[in-house]
Design a protein that fits this description.
Shape of chain B: globular
Radius of gyration of chain A: 13 Å
Distance between the termini of chain A: 36 Å
Strand content of chain A: over 45%
Oligomer: heterodimer
Structural class of chain A: mainly beta
Structural class of chain B: mainly beta
Largest sheet of chain B: 6 strands, mixed
Largest sheet of chain A: 7 strands, mixed
Order of helices and strands of chain B: EEEEEEEEEEE
Number of helices of chain B: 0
Number of strands of chain B: 11
Distance between the termini of chain B: 39 Å
Helix content of chain B: under 10%
Chain lengths: 113, 111
């Protein structure tokens, strides 16, 4: 099993550009989440999904869109990139509601200039 | 959002010393997890505690969940350079167990 995979590993965008961060998992997990990690702030939840076709907002959703058409994939779209979105982005999955381990991908380091 | 405060933010100790990291909140959590993160990688789960007062041991690491399920601690005995990393606590809340993360404690163990 590959676990949770994320692409790209690094990305540089200009202000106003859009892009999609890809995330896929091969563990048949129901739940998937996107977090951003900034120095001194831990991980903050952007959006999450409890199953295909179901998504909801997390703590910091503004400027990001998600969709979940399959169990495996959960892409994160930046609509119009801003310097404040410079961060490291992590995708995670877990089996469902309960005290289960979150499996994290390796992260995408995004810089917006 | 449920706030989790971790302390200290940074910890640098000599190999063989003990250390404790604290995680505190005013909110009650359904469960609490500790993760460790290496540079350039995603966090990896160390332990999950569910019951108030619960203590779990993982080799030289001891985890405790407060009686009221609002706080937790991570104690490392005889730290080794391999224990170096970012330690994150995460509390689960809500029916779908959303996680709120603390800001993390960067631990450096010098040989």
């Amino acid at each position: 099993n590959a676990g949770v995979t994320q692409t790209p590993k690094f990305q540089v965008l200009k202000t106003g550009q859009s892009m999609t961060l890809q995330c896929a998992q091969d563990m048949n997990h129901e739940y998937m989440s996107w977090y951003r990690q900034d120095p001194g702030m831990g991980l903050r939840l952007i959006h999450y999904s409890v199953g295909a076709g179901i998504t909801d907002q997390g703590e910091v959703p503004n400027g990001y869109n998600v969709s979940r058409s399959t169990t495996e994939d959960f892409p994160l779209r930046l609509l119009s990139a801003a310097p404040s979105q410079t961060s490291v982005y992590f995708c995670a999955s877990n089996p469902g509601p309960g005290p289960y381990e979150q499996y994290f991908g390796p992260g995408t380091r995004l810089t917006v200039t | 959002t449920q706030l989790l405060e971790q302390s200290p933010q940074f910890l640098s100790i000599q190999e063989g010393e003990n250390l404790t990291v604290y995680c505190n909140s005013s909110s009650v959590f359904s469960s609490l997890q500790w993760y460790r993160q290496e540079p350039g990688e995603g966090p990896v789960l160390l332990v999950t505690v569910v019951t108030g007062g619960e203590v779990k041991k993982l080799k030289r690491l001891t985890f405790q969940f407060g009686d009221a399920r609002k706080d937790s601690s991570l104690h490392i005995t005889a730290a080794q350079p391999g224990d170096t990393g970012l330690y994150l606590c995460a509390g689960a809340w809500g029916y779908d167990y959303k996680l709120s993360f603390g800001a993390g404690t960067t631990v450096t163990v010098r040989a």
